[in-house]
Amino acid sequence: MRVVLQEVIKASVTIDEKLFSSINKGYLLLVSFTHDDNEDIVSEMALKISKLRIFMDKDGKTNLSLSDIGGEILSVSQFTLYADVKHGNRPSFTNCMEQKSANNLYKFFNSSLRNLGFNVSTGIFGADMKVELINDGPFTLALDSNDLLK
């Protein structure tokens, strides 16, 4: 599982030229799955994200978590995070989980974050989405379950 986490002042998803969802201060999560991902991995990733302390405290140190600041989450499916560009110039997507299973894990991931107490907005899995954000910092992390859950 891969997640690109961006600290945002605000973020939104537009589909078919209509605002679909939006958040204020919090995380924009771009979420992707590969073949061996499962609910245990997804649960651990959700828990890790919930505990990250990347927001500035009054002393300018990254000591505050998303719950500490009352932040929100915008979760967007992004299968291209598993693109392979080692050979040639056209990405291969053979490392991406097939659509039905990935959609099920995406729903489970968002549910896991909600069960941890967060307000989670989403895009639509597989839709042509326009994502807008105002990155704060910018502060961006690339999280990979292979690195986090050893």
In short:
The chain is an alpha/beta fold and 150 residues long. It is 23% helix and 40% strand. The protein has helices spanning 39-51, 99-115, 145-148; strands at residues 2-15, 18-23, 26-32, 53-56, 62-65, 72-77, 120-122, 129-144.
Helix-strand layout with pairing:
Elements: E1 2-15, E2 18-23, E3 26-32, H1 39-51, E4 53-56, E5 62-65, E6 72-77, H2 99-115, E7 120-122, E8 129-144, H3 145-148
Parallel strand pairs: 3-6, 6-7
Antiparallel strand pairs: 1-2, 1-3, 1-8, 4-5
Question: Could you describe the 3D structure shown?
Answer:
- With 150 residues, this protein is of the alpha/beta class.
- The protein has a single domain (2-142), classed as D-tyrosyl-tRNA(Tyr) deacylase (D-tyrosyl-trna(Tyr) Deacylase, Chain: A, 3-Layer(bba) Sandwich).
- Helix content is 23%, strand content 40%.
- The chain has 3 helices and 8 strands; from the N terminus they run E-E-E-H-E-E-E-H-E-E-H.
- The protein has helices at residues 39-51, 99-115, 145-148, and strands at residues 2-15, 18-23, 26-32, 53-56, 62-65, 72-77, 120-122, 129-144.
- Strands 1, 2, 3, 6, 7 and 8 form a 6-stranded mixed β-sheet that branches.
- Strand 4 (53-56) and strand 5 (62-65) form a beta hairpin.
- The longest helix is centred in the last third of the chain and has 17 residues, at 99-115.
- The chain is globular, with a radius of gyration of 15 Å.
